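HUMAN: Forgive my ignorance: could you write out one protein's sequence and backbone structure tokens?

ASSISTANT:
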Amino acid sequence: MINTDHPYFFIKNIIDSESTYSLSRYIYLPDSLSDNRIIDTTLGENFSTHYINSLLKNLNKDQELAFHSLVKTKNKKIYHIPMIDFSTPTLDRETYYRLKNFIDYKILSNMFFYSTGNSFHAYSSKLLTHKEWLRFMGSLLLINPANSSFNIIDNRWIGHRIMSGFSTLRWSNNSGTYKSIPQKTEIKLF
């Protein structure tokens, strides 16, 4: 069900077998404060295409599958995988320079981008502590140009994620709400 351009393959390359990872099944509710999710956790050693395809296959009609930023190590330490939910329909040079001005180089230089049909998602392999993650989420708010209606980053997503204490990005296209399943893409710099 997923192909090699799916974000699973990026995540699979950065996880370790002894840490715990989370995904959730959820129903998107626009303009809602609630974030009702059914959370599934798994060890990295069980994080396989078979596992993901099984979760996708068992989604209810209106449910979507999302991957969480939380990484819980065997030593009970918690880290986050940096994630971004864009609201812009294009990833171009201007977007890249705004990212470069506000996101730490170690995060941005290890970031991969995925087209969702309407906009984009991004993931970085640079793990963050919870304090670093909060700082990162704050920096995302600064990427959108001041005094402009043009938004690069989805501010509502940031609000929901900070309130939940972790980031999530959609990995499915099950409900008919979205145009496509996320697929790897590149920023067009030239």
Notes: The longest strand covers residues 64-72. The mean pLDDT is 93. Strands lie at 20-26, 37-43, 64-72, 78-80, 83-85, 111-115, 120-124, 168-170, 183-185. The helical segments are 7-14, 49-57, 93-102, 105-108, 130-143, 155-164.
